[in-house]
Design brief:
This protein has 119 residues and is of the alpha+beta class. The chain is built from five helices and five strands.
């Protein structure tokens, strides 16, 4: 099975075209080497996907016939990413969510800001 189709089938990417783009951008490796979208995937390969700031590593356990449900994905791939890397990803996600603003200020907030900056 093609790499881009496999990544889409096991739900690592929402569409096949995004999986293809990731392969072309060098964000996907197969057995430690950058892989083109048409590279063949076989059982036993290791597939790495760049999810900033880490590489998530998966072992291929089976090849699906077509896109599978989220419950069946566990029988097709096994994540082998180290716990240190997963903690690094969690810290980055937490930092990103803490820095996220609450959106546009309300009229009341704007008045308070104006009063603060004037006086």
């Amino acid at each position: 099975m093609r790499l881009d189709k496999f990544l889409w089938c096991v739900r690592l990417f929402p569409t096949r075209s995004t999986a293809t783009e990731a392969c072309r951008a060098g964000k996907v490796q197969l057995n430690g080497r950058e892989a083109k979208p048409a590279t063949e995937v076989v059982v036993g390969n290791t597939c790495s996907v760049k999810r900033a700031p880490i590489w998530r590593v998966f072992e291929v356990l089976g090849i699906p016939g077509s896109r599978v449900s989220a419950k069946l994905v566990l029988g097709l791939i096994r994540e082998t990413t180290s716990l240190d890397e997963l903690e690094k990803l969690e810290r980055a996600n937490r930092t990103r969510s803490e820095n996220f603003g609450e959106g546009r200020p309300t009229k009341r907030d704007r008045r308070d800001l104006d009063r603060f900056s004037e006086g």
